[in-house]
Amino acid sequence: MIEAKVVLTQPHVLSRQFVATTGSGHHLIVDDPWGGTGPKPVELFAVALAGCTAFDVITHLRFKRHQQVTGYEVRAEADQTETEPKVFTAVRLHHIITGHEIDPEAVREAIQLSSTIHGAIEAMLRPVVSVVTTFEITPEKTLADVA
Fold first, then answer.
1. Are 75 and 7 within one domain?
2. In the structure, what pLDDT confidence band is assigned to residue 147 with cuts at 50, 70 and 90?
3. N- to C-terminal Cα distance for the chain?
4. CA 111 → CA 59, 78, 97, 106, distances in Å?
5. Are residues 51 and 94 in the same domain?
6. Are 103 and 125 in a shared domain?
7. H/E element, 86
8. From CA 28, how far away is CA 6, in angstroms rounded?
């Protein structure tokens, strides 16, 4: 079971800032654009999607395919409807992998497995929104490359 709790930080003030606590005991501030002290809740959904696929992909690349990944980033962009509720209408995930002799097929396989088998967040989104994934590989520069 996954648990989470949000508590209004200043109940006697008109702000809408909350402290979120995860079931594993981690805390973060959740806010709105007017308070500006933490992410909006919907932004956390995009973070969850990017984080979920990142864990899947890096695990597959490093431990199953033994790729020499030295840097990794996942960027998520989500379009929303103009009217309330502002649900996601399309999501784009872009993986940027840096390393030594990274095999593009290993990256494709890792992303595919995350998208279809392992990725819980994407699996929840998939029935209602299009998720498009792209990637790029940047070779790690060595001292010989710089000189």
1. no
2. low
3. 53
4. 11, 18, 12, 9
5. yes
6. yes
7. none
8. 9
pLDDT at 143: 66
Report residue 78's pLDDT band, with 50, 70 and 90 as the boundaries: very high
The residues facing 8 across adjacent strands are 18
Other CB atoms closer than 10 Å to residue 95's CB: what's the count? 23
Beta bridge pairs of residue 27: 21
User: What's the average model confidence in pLDDT over 78-92?
Assistant: 96
Which CATH number characterizes residue 138's domain?
Answer: 3.30.300.20
Total domains, the chain:
2
- CB proximity list for 83: less than 8 A, separation 6 or greater: none
Whether pLDDT at 52 is above 90: yes
Distance of CA 134 to the CA centre of its chain: 14
Domain, as residue range, for 7: 1-39
Average pLDDT over residues 43-57: 97
Choose one of 9, 24, 39: the last residue of a domain: 39
Residues 65/62/103/69 CA torsion (nearest 10 deg): -170
Q: Is the pTM here over 0.70, yes or no?
A: yes
- The confidence band for 34, taking pLDDT boundaries of 50, 70 and 90, is confident
